[in-house]
Task: structure prediction
Amino acid sequence: MSSVAKWYIALVVASGTVILLLAARWWSSASLTQFAALLCFTLFASTLKVRIPGMTSTISPNFAFLLIAIAFFSFSQVIVATAGAALMQSFWRPKSRPQMVQVLFSAAALVLSSAFAFTAAHLVVRPFDNNSAVALVLLAGTFYLSMNTALVSIVVGLTEQQPIKQVCQRCYEWAFPYFVFGIVVTGLISGSFSTTTAWRSSLQVAPAMVLAYLYFLGRSKKQAESRAVNEEAEELLAISSLER
Result:
């Protein structure tokens, strides 16, 4: 791993840690019961992982519940839910044993993405309509997707010595349709939510996100199988050329 990659990872992890500490210091919760319920939904969604072909990164429908948290819960609650979701996504049935640096970076990247999405969305919406859940979800989803994709693409490009632009394009090819579907569905449904029933109403989002998960899971498996077949064909071609 290059020194640039190490410094970048250290910077992201340090920034995520600072945000976590600030969230703990500013902790506020109008109802622990509501927050606990939403946290459970988010953690469950984190177990529904889809691996991006050709990468170790995974995507999960947990972002839909994090967007609901951004619209209806406090900053500290959003950050705690995000950290929990990131840890669950890393440790739940991994394909290989995750390294600590990977876990820390993934958690920090998601925390930074959520913090940026929360702050930017509320700053934009607040002067116009502070109660517009739909606008908050749509804007937060856009900011979250952009920030998270950038952070992950840069670290993959630096650690695997691949062109960052190419890695970013590959991430967007997979993440963009998945996230856009979730953002639009969550945004439209959130218009009927209220602050006191958001955690219960968020169950309306679950069926759509499960269907999206199943679709992209099947698509991921097909591409993985196609990739394996192509690699096997290339190996056989290389062997046959050497035997001539």
The mean pLDDT is 82. The chain is about 75% helix and 0% strand.
